[in-house]
Amino acid sequence: MQLDAKIPAGPLETKWDKHRFDLKLVSPANKRKFEIIVVGTGLAGGSASASLAELGYNVKTFCIQDSPRRAHSIAAQGGINAAKNYPNDSDSIWRLFYDTIKGGDFRAREGNVYRLAQVSNLIIDHCVAQGIPFAREYGGLLANRSFGGAQVSRTFYARGQTGQQLLLGAYSSLMRQVAAGRVTMFPRREMLDLVLVDGQARGIVVRNLITGEIERHTAHAVVLATGGYGNVFFLSTNGMGCNVTAAYRAYKKGAGFANPCFTQIHPTCIPVHGDYQSKLTLMSESLRNDGRVWVPKKEGDQRPPEQIPEDERDYYLERIYPSFGNLAPRDISSRAAKLMCDQGKGVGPTGRAVYLDFADAIKRLGKAEIEARYGNLFQMYEKIVAQDPYKTPMMIYPASHYAMGGLWVDYNLMSTIPGLFVLGEANFSDHGANRLGASALMQGLADGYFVIPNTINGYLAGTRFAEVTDSHEAFKESEAAVDAQVKRLLNIKGKRTVQDFHRELGNIMWEYCGMGRTDEGLTKGRKLVAEVRAEFWENVNVPGSHTDFNQSLENAGRVADFLEFADVLLADALARRESCGCHFNEAFQTEDHEALRDDENMCHVAVWEYAGEGQEPIFHKEPLVFENVKLVTRSYK
Amino acid sequence: MSSNSINLTLKVWRQPGQTAPGRLETYPAENIPTDASFLEMLDIVNERLTLKGIEPIAFDHDCREGICGMCGSVINGRPHGPEKETTLCQLHMRHFHNGDTLVIEPFRARAYPVVKDLVVDRSALDKIIAAGGFISVNTGQAPEANSLPVPKENADLAMDAAACIGCGACVAACPNAAAMLFTSAKISQFALLPHGRPEAAKRALAMVAQMDAQGFGNCTNHKECEVECPKGISISNIARLNREWLKAALVSKEKIPA
Question: In this predicted complex, what is the ipTM?
């Protein structure tokens, strides 16, 4: 496996301009001769489909939902970062770049992250022009707020529904291209294989989720924008349909998987309360702008929060990280919450929760102002928990949220398979070992609106393509393999449901590969996952048939892939001999329980290559080169 | 969070496919934790049905945070159930009583064919958006974001309208199966912003024409849509749509699409 990141030479500020000039172009008249498949219609896939179609390419877009407006980007609450510096608080492209590199604990590429910061401002311009109703000041200009991991206010937002508004913007542009005939939309289709011809990605095999038919689709290039794999933990803030299947099946066809152990655990979610629970709900990080996080100073203090006097409370984030306080980055805040609960200071019925308290903010700003800022989040909390957060502090606990790891891509966002591009959360490229708040929306839209429309030209113009139809042998073989797996799942007729296996996998991953990891636990995790995987293929019960709408069958395929992928994740966690960002191996920590990096030996991207069923994946590394920032111990104190 | 449980009887619409006949089937739902959401209750029932060899109830769902608009069924005659401004995934079982019987049906409208059980095809709503629910700006064309100030009041009203999640409950609630609340929310969002004005007339005419072509009914001011909307979208948006449409039809040069 060759890992050439193709980062352009020269100063950071000019890399992207120079690269765009160096890439070959496809003339307007020739663009319509190319077909591009886009899988996924979240921020990355929706924006890529629209932008590629605007350029004149023929785009075929696929999603598993009933409509391209529903992808889980829609659930992002807090906001989107950009380096506009409207508040005049010393922000700049360079500062956004630096904050993102540092926030990722120096495990992302300088070139990619700088480009992300550069195009961030264009995203805001474009989204405003699309009619996205961002929050505004009384003068009619755009409002900003602050977010974790930054000391400037650079986050643009639309109440607590920023992801929804940005996604609906991308969706509206996509539907405009559907009406213009330049995008053909295929909803309720699930990609079950990537098809390679002469080593190039030339199409996909999908299952029509309504009729059960297996369909073949050809193209000159395939763009995956299929999101992250947080549901490997079963309980997560991801949507129920979020899965690793498209990415994992591309991995099995030769795409390298990068840094799978970098999984973000978000600090502010509603705690687990029952074993019937299907998902965890995020409470936006923006709440930490005004909410104060605390636990009782005394272990096992069972008093209700209002009876605990001020001097018996430990505002531990403010205490340990005075310069960032409640806005410490996600990995750090999550670990601190776990540490408090491990010390017996957790609250709520399970003892696995901390308080997020708005009493001071309400006193300072008034209830009306807090309602204007966070009204919908407070309402959501009250619906789920049946407690009024205006009166009693919220209870929160960390939960699986985002995958920084993903398919390896070069500077052009192309994977190790020629013609297979990967965008958004599905790739690994920009967030290193920890993503900062309000940066996922920025990256998804940067990739889709501004990066891929430039870089795909270089590939299409510089590649020779054989004539390929869907009756090519490679498509036949792929369809046969997909069909065989579907039927095998239905024929097991065992005694346990798909969800039961998924929950068991999730428990193992959370226990042994969650916020605190040890070599012993990870090794045990691999053994346990292998046992569950073996039992799954003997004892799963998938009811119904393959010729109609069958949600159990859909889930069975996804859980089967999670069961294999989990092993790659655990292997990666074992191989990373340091703690960095979200990855915290207890053997590598400072005296104050902070992550201890090993820049001498571990300053690389870990990339895994599929080696065949039952074989250990093959390890490769792409060294990370830092020419512009100094690797320092990340401190938010 | 208390952890009580209740016993319920479900009468669920089962229909194998679009053209197959459907019927209500009765299932017990025992020991349902009151902290569970409505969809988690269906998960529990489905796990039990699967182990009994009965095919589980098909229902659409994804985010389970009330924002994706994928879920939605009619519970005892009310889309998304009895709670105000709540999607089915955010409706918790503590709002029901031990011994209740719940009749669970799909959203019903001519424009929403049933796919299976509680799952319906709402692609007609996408077609309304494709007809004009966008601002025609290509990537790269946009001017600087702050070059056009928007009065805060208008931005807030646009956001109120833009909060629509496209679940389609408004159609299921309407005796005429009209999609006026859905369509008016998008038309209002863009009509209120200066960026949306250049195409306002064309948009109003095209989206309304597409709404009719998809087989949705007309608005006769029953206001059921507003009551059932999980995002509290106001019918004042329908009044704004009517004004936009009239202006477009009477004084603009745009033609009503055939």
Answer: 0.98
